């Protein structure tokens, strides 16, 4: 067996193999995934699926039959343990499989709390896989007390689901404000107020000192000395790119598996895409943790395996659903120096600028602001702040 072997049957891996086939690649394709289920979408795990409003089958990116029908050898529940670059083979315990092109789409892994502070107690959960969410779902009972550690999007989405299910929710964020790493103060303020209206007790500038309990978590001591009684804990303290195989194989690593502009690693027969990969961007490198990046980068790498020679140009966007608010984000806000607010009552958006240049938009229940902002940012154009700030003005004039 040779052809293309893809390690990691998540969003990027599944997109890549489908693209290869739809673009006419006729050689053997093998997609290997450690999880026992066909490739699925993760975003609903902390949204509709956790709420119990989405069936399992709807998570699947494609019907399971698709892979056999298109001649893709999907091997599930199988962990690749090594890469023999000299022999061009992947190693799975005793078994080996040769490749002409190898693609690493190994994604990322959630950070866990150390066992020394109770991170290994029963009732302590992370939110990455279907198995993680299925394990925590029975604890989502009205009246149950949940502590959420971390005020990023995953923690806030879990808090929204828990509050919607009638649970008592405390969320602690060690930084001075929720979403500090990814958003402006205005966006943090918006979501703090939203959660406050739903009864979530958000404590900022407060860390977790340790979890309490014998086998099962029963309490938590916070850095301000407070002790809480809890029934379950959800940990949303970030993810790390899964570079283990690449590192062991001696590939270059730099905030993820380092690839060139076309998605090739430091070994030209090995490519990488999605959460695990960092690519050249401006003066440095960029690694994105989002579905659109996983899909677009996988598509680009598939084209380059077919010899297209195209550079990956990210068009970053992201979304988050909390209660009845849909947040849509376009662009990268890094380096902004001011925010322009467009407040249309139910529809609110925050526009990030550096000097006169529009960098990013956070739009809350405002699909038009998102759409206009995205078109401008993708085209490298800016937006007149006076028009943006005037909620009565039609944003479409900005598109010229
Ligand atoms: C709860 C949750 C909510 C999210 N919400 C959003 C959202 O609203 N919007 C958005 O844009 N993004 C969201 N994301 C992020 C998005 O899901 C990821 O960016 C995306 O899944 C990345 O795709 P990937 O293919 O790179 O990695 P993954 O989807 O993580 O897939 C990697 C796969 O590789 C497998 N693997 C790793 N090592 C091996 C090995 N050695 N052998 C075999 N298999 C291996 C893993 O088991 C995994 O299944 C969310 C993520 C989570 C967890």
UniProtKB/TrEMBL annotation:
Swiss-Prot/TrEMBL cofactor(s): FAD
Keywords on record: FAD, Flavoprotein, Oxidoreductase
Pfam families for the chain: Pyr_redox_2, Reductase_C
UniProt cross-references to InterPro entries, sorted A to Z: FAD-oxidoreductase/Apoptosis, FAD/NAD-bd_sf, FAD/NAD-binding_dom, FAD/NAD-linked_Rdtase_dimer_sf, Reductase_C
Segments forming domain FAD/NAD(P)-binding: 4-298
Record-listed E.C. numbers: 1.18.1.3
Enzyme class label: oxidoreductase
Any one Gene Ontology cellular component term annotated for this protein: cytoplasm
Single Gene Ontology MF annotation: ferredoxin-NAD+ reductase activity
Domain (Reductase C-terminal): residue spans on this chain: 317-398
Protein name (database record): NAD(P)H-nitrite reductase
Lineage: Bacteria, Pseudomonadati, Pseudomonadota, Alphaproteobacteria, Rhodobacterales
């Amino acid at each position: 067996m040779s052809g293309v072997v893809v390690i990691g049957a998540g969003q990027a891996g599944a997109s890549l193999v489908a693209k290869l086939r739809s673009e006419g690649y006729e050689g053997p394709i093998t997609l290997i995934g450690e999880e026992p289920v066909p490739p699925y979408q993760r975003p609903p795990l902390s949204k509709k699926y956790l709420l119990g409003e989405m069936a399992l089958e709807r998570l699947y990116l494609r019907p399971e039959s698709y892979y056999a029908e298109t001649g893709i050898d999907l091997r599930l529940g199988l962990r690749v343990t090594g890469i023999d670059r000299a022999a061009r083979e992947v190693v799975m315990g005793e078994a080996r499989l040769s490749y002409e092109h190898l693609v690493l789409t190994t994604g990322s892994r959630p950070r866990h709390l150390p066992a020394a502070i109770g991170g290994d107690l029963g009732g302590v959960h992370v939110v990455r896989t279907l198995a993680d969410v299925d394990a925590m779902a029975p604890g989502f009972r009205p009246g149950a007390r949940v502590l959420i550690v971390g005020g990023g999007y995953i923690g806030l989405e879990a808090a929204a689901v828990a509050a919607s299910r009638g649970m008592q929710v405390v969320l602690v964020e060690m930084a001075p404000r929720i979403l500090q790493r990814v958003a402006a103060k205005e966006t943090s303020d918006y979501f703090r107020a939203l959660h406050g209206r739903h009864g979530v007790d958000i404590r900022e500038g407060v860390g977790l000192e340790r979890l309490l309990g014998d086998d099962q978590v029963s309490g938590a001591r916070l850095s301000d000395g407070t002790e809480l009684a809890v029934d379950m804990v959800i940990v949303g303290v970030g993810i790390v790119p899964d570079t283990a195989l690449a590192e062991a194989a001696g590939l270059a690593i730099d905030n993820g598996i380092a690839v060139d502009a076309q998605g090739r690693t430091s070994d030209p027969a090995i490519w990488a895409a999605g959460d695990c990969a960092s690519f050249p961007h401006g003066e440095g490198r960029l690694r994105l943790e989002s579905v659109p990046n996983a899909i677009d980068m996988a598509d680009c790498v598939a084209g380059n395996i077919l010899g297209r020679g195209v550079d990956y140009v990210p068009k970053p966007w992201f979304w988050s659903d909390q209660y009845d608010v849909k947040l849509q984000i376009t662009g990268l806000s890094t380096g902004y120096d001011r925010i322009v607010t467009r407040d249309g009552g139910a529809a609110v958006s925050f526009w990030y600028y550096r000097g006169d240049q529009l960098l990013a938009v956070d739009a809350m229940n405002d699909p038009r602001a998102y759409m206009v902002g995205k078109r401008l940012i993708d085209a490298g154009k800016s937006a007149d702040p006076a028009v943006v700030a005037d909620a009565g003005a039609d944003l479409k004039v900005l598109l010229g």
